[in-house]
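Quiz preparation item.
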């Protein structure tokens, strides 16, 4: 039996992770001079954080460092337990690279250890969905190697829209001019996560209403491919907008299996308040799904 590990940006509650026997290492974020460990179970912490984003506060984040990963992995390695770590996309954070460095350091001392680190090329609920799939495979008797092979051959389509362009500007995703003009004309970009796990703008849509409708259209296309799949909807605090996307989908696909959850602080620091994201599987890979 192998141990499943992940980070706190997976969009899953501690209770869900515990139920699937997944151990978690937290990211940290700093807001108003206070550094806090990300905790999706702390609803008050999340709502306070979202409220500060809405007020224009610019928090900062830090990658999980190599030493933290070594400490996280080491007890399992010392016990001789194979481990599978699934982390936030390397295209969005240097944290995953630090996990690779921690693995290499541990292998110098424990050369026979089985330490697998998988770049999910995903964020928040997309990362979480792959973790739940890994747990399902493990429960059906899949080996560690088989689970890794499945994870690296199955990638999600992930679509986002944001409400405040200033956060994309501060994160280097768009220019100051684009943020200023976009805000003036109510441009709401549609973004996805590409095949390298990086955010990219794929469309520019007038008004929030139409951007949310575009998300629902992406989901409906994916449901034609696999109507039984679970569609995950995530938001950085705008629950009404997430429910609007859900309702648009259900109006066309009333049997759809939909779940709504939070976007963690590490990602929300870069999207701002009001980001809404959807996570689906479709018939095309990411570079062809635009």
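Solution:
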């Amino acid at each position: 039996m192998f141990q499943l590990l992940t980070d706190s940006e997976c969009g899953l509650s501690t209770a869900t992770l515990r139920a699937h026997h997944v151990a978690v290492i937290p990211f940290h974020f700093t807001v108003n001079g206070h550094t806090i460990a990300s905790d999706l179970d702390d609803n008050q912490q999340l709502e306070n954080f979202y409220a500060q984003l809405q007020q224009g506060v610019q928090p900062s984040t830090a990658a999980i460092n190599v030493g933290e990963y070594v400490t996280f992995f080491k007890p399992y390695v010392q016990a001789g337990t194979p481990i599978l770590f699934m982390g936030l996309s390397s295209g969005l954070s240097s944290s995953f690279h630090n996990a690779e460095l921690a693995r290499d350091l541990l292998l110098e001392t424990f050369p026979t250890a089985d330490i697998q680190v998988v770049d999910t090329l995903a964020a928040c609920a997309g990362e979480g969905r792959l973790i739940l799939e890994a747990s399902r495979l493990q429960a059906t008797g899949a080996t560690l190697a088989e689970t890794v092979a499945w994870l690296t051959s199955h990638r999600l389509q992930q679509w986002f829209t944001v409400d405040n362009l200033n956060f994309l500007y501060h994160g280097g995703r768009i220019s100051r001019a684009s943020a200023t003009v976009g805000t003036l004309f109510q441009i709401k970009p549609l973004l996805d996560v590409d095949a390298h796990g990086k955010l990219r703008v794929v469309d520019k849509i007038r008004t929030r209403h139409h951007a949310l409708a575009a998300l629902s259209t992406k989901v409906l296309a994916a449901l034609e491919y696999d109507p039984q799949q679970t569609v995950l909807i995530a938001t950085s605090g705008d629950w009404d907008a997430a429910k609007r996307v859900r309702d648009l989908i259900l109006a066309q696909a009333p049997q759809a299996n939909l779940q709504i959850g939070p976007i963690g602080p590490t990602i929300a620091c870069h999207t701002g308040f009001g980001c809404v994201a959807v996570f689906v599987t479709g018939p095309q890979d990411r570079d062809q799904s635009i």
